[in-house]
Request: fold
Amino acid sequence: ELKVEQNPLFLSMQEGKNYTIYCNYSTTSDRLYWYRQDPGKSLESLFVLLSNGAVKQEGRLMASLDTKARLSTLHITAAVHDLSATYFCAGLSSGSARQLTFGSGTQLTVLP
Amino acid sequence: GAGVSQSPSNKVTEKGKDVELRCDPISGHTALYWYRQSLGQGLEFLIYFQGNSAPDKSGLPSDRFSAERTGGSVSTLTIQRTQQEDSAVYLCASSLFGRTDREKLFFGSGTQLSVL
Reply:
């Protein structure tokens, strides 16, 4: 059974600073997803990482995947207030084309 | 509509009552998913519908939970004899072909269920 753990669960950071959110998973998952959720809003897909060494960047967010370490990271560069949200990673169990297993989420607050 | 629509957005009920939660997926999406998000937790898979295939009910936590999808579009999640531990946000998502390894899931805003 795939288990996904994120850390930290809560993160407060100053505008302009850099930080990384970590996502560890327990068994083989060669696809890793990152989602963003604003309070009272839908989950928004950010990145889909499909292979070992994959790196994707959009704006101040960069996601990477290391399947050997079973680790994905979401790096935030020069944070701005608009990035405040909850970020979820999710893995896809081997053999399943449907079910995503989500981490508990990281609640990010960017302070002015 | 342009996105996945869920109703009601909030539901408060008494323990032991039945509730129905509704999901309108994006038009044309053949796959529909229900997830549950408890306070401070990640998303827990409940059930998956794909076209006319038998649904994957492997995530339903008990036989008090059931779901149906009529006409390959709207879905209703029913919880019978609600318990306090059922309190959570119930999220619906849809995708075009159901292959989550190739495409995105589009999520609704959820139904916040509170069982008193």
User: Anything to note?
Assistant: Strands of chain B lie at 5-7, 10-13, 19-24, 31-37, 43-50, 65-69, 75-79, 88-95, 106-107, 111-115.
